[in-house]
Amino acid sequence: MDPTISYWLHNEFVQSAMILVGSVLVAQIFHMFLVRWARKAAEKTATNVDDRIVRATTIPTYLLIISIGLYFSIKTLSYVNPYFSIIHKIFFVIFVLFVSTIIGRSLTILISQFVKIKKSMRGLLD
Predict the structure, then answer these.
(1) Fewest CB within a 10 Å sphere: which of 33, 72, 84, 126?
(2) Angle, to 10 degrees, between the axis of helix 12-33 and the axis of helix 3-10?
(3) Residues of 4-34 as b/e, b for ≥16 C-beta within 10 angstroms?
């Protein structure tokens, strides 16, 4: 292998950048999957609940994937080792916020749909 290429492949900054770029690519592919396939599949169903869930969770999921890549790209850098316990805690909070946003938005949509159904059934029973 060419020594220049070997140097760049073993450089921690290059590795960190490659991880970050890879996570952006994975996030972009996942986003395209959600927009193209999942939304089209959701549009074919009888209710709009799944449409709303896909729309509400697409951006937080995209940002979560990029955040995971950023976490691992920072983890590869040796100069952040003394601060990594703090960085780990910060990213843990970020991950919890994104996951709770995804779950919260999904549950809000499901509960609002349940309430609509409940109200319409109450009108039929009265």
Answers:
(1) 126
(2) 70
(3) eeeeeeeeeeebbeebbeebeeebeebeeeb
